[in-house]
Design a protein that fits this description.
With 443 residues, this protein is α+β, with helices and mostly antiparallel strands. Helices cover 17% and strands 29% of the residues. It folds into 2 domains: 85 residues, Immunoglobulin-like (Sandwich), CATH 2.60.40; 299 residues, Metallo-dependent phosphatases (Purple Acid Phosphatase, chain A, domain 2, 4-Layer Sandwich). It contains 7 helices and 24 strands. The strands form 5 sheets. Strands 14, 15, 16, 17, 18, 19, 20 and 21 form an 8-stranded mixed β-sheet that branches. Strands 13-12-11-22-23-24 form a 6-stranded mixed β-sheet. Strands 1-2-8-5 form a 4-stranded antiparallel β-sheet. A hairpin with a 2-residue loop joins β6 and β7. α5 runs parallel beside α6.
């Protein structure tokens, strides 16, 4: 069952809230638990297909606007692109049809990849569904239409035994939306690994919306033959880019429960003359902060990083886009790529700034390459917590002013909350809007 707060957040007395926030901050300022023994690399899990060739597999869902969900799955033989669904198990009162496609990558040919949008759906409601009129029944719960809401954030997931551990820990508590900042399957051109990954995550991705963006391991380009890359990613993990006026599946935005999330593309053009930059500027201008108090950005390559791994790889994107996020008073920026956890203070242009986003690197989901164990010393004062361990994060946005962030380290059989703090929304920080060149009412 989902954890519920004993009382609405607004009922906390100010002194009790202040005391709790001070304790959380004090507990999370250290560099990490140096006595923790980090577990070694674990092997890849190859997840077989146990159903018939005509039955759906690799089922996952994603959000499409405020009242719709896209159901995606694969069949190895001809099957209808149809989803039957309803609010009671085995009783499908609604039906929707969609489309299917397949792709070729050298000698590999994918199965039929189906995408069907269903809805309109009610918020905070359980739905039961079946794909292609065959196979097992699945179920999911729609997110709430107002705060509070809880996001799980996991980067660089892969399909190792550590991945399975992370997903098990994630599933031990309820949440509303799963956000993945790139590097999904680590197939790296070995296309059967995309199928194996889809089967591995199906028990989780079929129950809650998974919103993803691309990482470097999704590129899979090859000169002349596949110069543009992302063939498998775009075919299998279709996101709601058209609904946010984007022209590419590699970057988009979505809104849920008073939260606007920007899913940005680290591996497609992002300079000031690019389509992505122009789209981001227009998308930010449409946000009404009084109605949507929280704005979060997701990238793959981190803009700030004190780990020895991947130094400077997000710098050109930071130089191009950081000012846009800063002026729009984006609250948080999550990244992956570096296989460790690191939380920074609020930053703008390499300096602490109380009106800038809080930056978090969380590329520690369970990748096959292992952890990035070495951080630079002496530690930058901008970096408040850093640790090379596998884990996952939870962002619970409680109301229009406060959210709670926690990073849970995988401690084999248990997930240990190693870092946590309360975050105040910039939309309600008056001093930040007084110093902004963009009027509050226009965002």
């Amino acid at each position: 069952m989902k954890e519920k707060m004993a009382r609405p957040f607004s009922m906390f007395s100010s002194s009790l809230l202040l005391h709790a926030m001070i304790i959380c901050t004090m507990l999370s300022q250290s560099q990490g638990d140096n006595e923790f023994v980090r577990q070694p690399f674990r092997p890849i899990i190859h997840t077989p297909h146990h159903r018939s060739e005509a039955e759906p597999q690799q089922v996952h869902i994603s959000l499409v606007g405020k009242e719709h969900v896209r159901v995606s799955w694969v069949t190895e033989k001809h099957a209808e692109s149809v989803v039957e669904y309803g609010m009671a198990s085995g009783k499908y009162t609604e039906k929707a049809t969609g489309e299917h496609s397949s792709y070729q990558f050298f000698f590999y040919r994918s199965g039929r990849i189906h995408h069907v949008v269903i809805g309109p759906l009610k918020p905070s409601t359980a739905y039961f569904y079946r794909c292609s009129a065959s196979g097992p029944e699945f179920s999911f719960k729609t997110p709430p239409d107002s705060l509070p809401i809880e996001f799980v954030v996991v980067g660089d997931l892969g399909q190792t035994e550590w991945t399975a551990s992370t997903l098990k820990h994630v599933d031990s508590r309820d949440y509303d939306v799963f956000v993945l900042p790139g590097d999904l399957s680590y197939a790296d051109t070995q296309q059967p690994l995309w199928d194996s990954f889809g089967r591995l995550v199906e028990p989780y991705a079929s129950q809650r919306p998974w919103m993803v963006t691309q990482g470097n391991h999704e590129i899979e380009s090859f000169p002349i033959i596949f110069p543009d890359g992302f063939r498998a990613y775009n075919s299998r993990w279709r996101m709601p880019y058209e609904e946010s006026s984007s022209t590419s599946n590699l970057y988009y935005s979505f809104e849920v429960a008073g939260t606007h999330i920007l899913m940005l593309g680290s591996y497609t053009h992002f300079d000031v003359d690019s389509d992505q930059y122009k789209w981001l500027r227009a998308d930010l201008a449409k946000i009404e902060r009084r109605r949507t108090p929280w704005v979060i950005a997701i990238v793959h390559a981190p803009w700030y990083n004190t780990n020895d791994a991947h130094q400077g790889e997000g710098e050109s994107m930071r130089q191009a886009m950081e000012e846009l996020l800063y002026k729009a008073r984006v609250d948080l920026v999550f990244a992956g790529h570096v296989h460790a956890y690191e939380r920074f203070t609020r930053i703008y242009d390499n300096e602490a700034d109380s009106c800038g986003p809080m930056y978090v690197t969380i590329g520690d989901g369970g990748n096959r390459e292992g952890l990035a164990l070495t951080f630079k010393n002496p530690r930058s004062p901008l970096s408040l917590y850093r640790e090379p361990s596998f884990g996952h994060g939870r962002l619970r946005i409680v109301n229009e002013t406060h959210a709670h962030w926690a990073w849970h380290r995988n401690n084999d059989s248990d997930a240990f909350m190693a870092d946590n703090l309360w975050i105040h929304s910039l939309s309600t920080t008056k001093s930040c809007w007084e110093s902004s060149s963009v009027p509050h009412d226009e965002l």
